Amino acid sequence: MSDQPTGRAVEIICRFGVTAQAVAAAITTFLTDLGIEAEGCIVYERNIGSLLDLPEAVSQSGKPHFRAEVGPVVADMGGVRNYGHTLVTVEAKEPLPWRPLVEGVDGLVLARAHDVQYDHWQNAEDPLVYQAAGRSMDGLPMKSNGLPFPLEQQVVDTSRNAGRRVLRQGYVEAIGHRMWLGPEYFARVPGADRDAIMNAGWLQVTEMENGILEVVASDEPFTDDSTADIQNRLRRLLFPTTA
Q1: Distance (Å, rounded) from C-alpha 67 to C-alpha 180?
Q2: How far apart are CA 192 and CA 171, in angstroms?
Q3: What is the pLDDT of residues 45-62, one digit of tens each?
Q4: Among the listed residues 239, 182, 184, the one whose alpha carbon sits nearest the alpha carbon of residue 214
Q5: Given 4, 93, 176, 216, which residue has the most CB atoms within 10 angstroms?
Q6: What does the alpha-carbon distance between residue 27 and residue 70 come to, in Å, rounded to a whole number?
């Protein structure tokens, strides 16, 4: 992707231990079903030729993670051992119908569709990132990075941002305009209430196969603070003890 993040993405959080080969196979099926160009697949910075060879290339590497580029699509997968989950992110220049991919990844905890640029700036703390982008920090709340002298410095405080993303034990606290909640979400997120979600009249909630709930707060991605109220409301519903 370019230095300035753009496009749409899905972030999938699944249980730790899901294999890189299984995720690569799910992504391959998803992209080929969409008719994404199958030639010129780059993984581990090497052109392996066909997208169809991605699962085998990942398996032969023996690595528990991968980054693959196929035309306008970039996919990343890796385990977060200390937090007990695996992260899968797929970015594209244009929105894709993410649901089949979410259904195809084993061990789903939760997934969310989001705007890449908005998500980036809602969670950017390092002043150097703003400087490199020529983006003003005027008026942004600041805090210490908590490191000892001489490493201590002021960074942007994102803890009150509507689009903040927080790593939690077993899951990631983050929201999107369209989300999917797997059975493990209700086992891992403290206070998660299936009935409250199903009965939230301001959301479009659909029960899918395998006990997955699809939760739609908006047809379009969140891109600015004009949607902060609904973002905060959704966060309080889905993460009631930490929002």
Answers
A1: 23
A2: 12
A3: 999 999 999 999 999 999
A4: 182
A5: 176
A6: 11
Place of tokens 């409250």: 196
Amino acid at residue number 184: E
3-state secondary structure of 100: helix
Q: Which residue has the tokens 């905890």?
A: 109
- As beta bridge partners, residue 205 has 215
- pTM here? 0.95
Q: What angle do CA 177, 168, 91 make, to 5 degrees?
A: 40
Residues 218, 83: Cα–Cα separation, whole Å = 29
Please give the DSSP secondary-structure letter assigned to residue 53. Answer: G
Which residues, in sequence order, are bridge partners of residue 8?
92, 115
**Cβ contacts of 241 within 8 Å, gap of 6 or more:** 190, 191
What is the CB neighbour count within 10 angstroms for residue 18?
21
Residue 155, H or E segment: strand 154-156
